[in-house]
Amino acid sequence: MNWKRGVLTGLGIYAASIIWGFLLIFSSTSIDLNNPIVLVVSLIILAVIYALFSLWYFRKEIADWKEGLYLGLILLATVLVIELLLDAIDILTNVATFSEAIGYYTSWQFLVRGGSIVLISILVGYWKSKKVVRKRK
Known about the structure:
- There is one protein chain.
- This protein is 82% helix and 0% strand.
- It is an all-alpha fold.
């Protein structure tokens, strides 16, 4: 497990997710962001982002489901650290309250996104390991 490459992958996922969020917000004049269809499409796009970055990580690393689990946990930890730092700044500068931050981290959307990062990393690691086995035969 190359944790430095994992953290770099996590930073890439965070940056790509922020870009997707900005694109969604700036086009929101005609889009209801609470519409279930928008939420599902957004989760699908985020899943593709997670998968692409996981594939990038496994390009130079040995892949299997266990490495995918380790990668997913590193990605989740990286994203959590960034989010917590930004929330701490928001709370200290009175932009947000502590209860708003707790509400964000306990929302079902946050839990689904966090779980999907780990699950998709496991699936990509497993898929890459099966792909390598098939090439060897």
